[in-house]
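Friendly challenge for the regulars: who can give me the structure tokens for this chain first? No prize, just bragging rights.
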Amino acid sequence: MSEVNAGEGLRRVFTGQEETVGMRLDVFLAGLTELGLSRSQVQQLIREGRVKVDGRPAKPSLRLAAGTEVEVIVPPPAPADLRPEAIPLNIVYEDEHLVVLDKPAGLVVHPAPGHPEGTLVNALLAHCGSELAGIGGVLRPGIVHRLDKDTSGLMVVAKSEAAHQGLSAAIKARQVERVYLALAFGELKADVSMVDAPIGRHPVQRKKMAVVERGGRPARTRLRVLERFPGYTYLEATLETGRTHQIRVHLAFIGHPVVGDPVYGRRQGNLGLKRQFLHAARLKFTHPVSGEVLSFSSPLPEELALVLARLRREKEKDGIGVKQLDE
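First reply, four minutes later:
Bragging rights claimed.
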């Protein structure tokens, strides 16, 4: 093994030996005591493009050959001590096991390189106190799903271990209903459609996600048109799976990216928005402890509602009229 400081982390290079022939890549790396990583941590590094085999990105299931060179870049650890911060939160429901909140755009959910503080987790630690610490992990306490920084709307956070396990299992089993409102470029033809396309790391731009032919995870998004405007479509997107950037990637994949999306969208025609037009509007799930069915809704934030009102005025002025599908 050799190692060098790679700037973004510690770069380590291992060479496969005779005893590792035929071993899966993730099993091989998880078994290296000098790395000290679990198999799930190794798989995460692989998904992030931080593992290369003979100079090329590889899948966790790759079988090693004798003399194979495996390069691993382990990023610097995120700060382990999270500081509570008195950041205002819009709480819509809370009990001893969980909290449901309406996240504003611009708020990062959990600490990460570049955002060590000022996150939703910091705010939750201040709001919930010691009861949240350690629930589900040190760096992401209570977080069972997340919203992108510039996506607003409803989130549920666990305050007890029972709630964390129950909510995580429900999300995995697709028993949590998450419905988003989005404004997309172009006019979708079908009133109702399904995007069923696997999502994985972009093969070249590793900080982005993409629809991929190999190595992706199944991803399904149901779309329903609410209103059409010249050059735009206001729609409802329901997650059947919960992959990173799923709605944004799927809409871009079908040629209708989210308006205002700085990563997957377009540079022109963003209607003056400084955030993406994507809002988690409805959330429904069974309480993991009481068994009660809980359902919540959140109206469009003012900046998004104003854009929608502007499009309706322009459509009416052009004499087209606004035809709105039943919601």
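The two ends are 60 Å apart (CA to CA). The helical segments are 25-30, 39-47, 120-128, 161-172, 246-253, 302-317. Your move, everyone else.
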